[in-house]
Amino acid sequence: MEGITKVKDLNSGSKRVTVLAKVLSVGEP
Predict the structure, then answer these.
(1) What is the arithmetic mean of pLDDT over 7-28?
(2) Model-level pTM?
(3) Measured between alpha carbons, how far is 23 from 29 in angstroms, rounded to an integer?
């Protein structure tokens, strides 16, 4: 069960990073 939770955390973390990257790229001129 712990392994599955870790995978979910990694997936959600990567999604957050992707969203942040998009926001940063859009925010820059």
Answers:
(1) 85
(2) 0.47
(3) 12
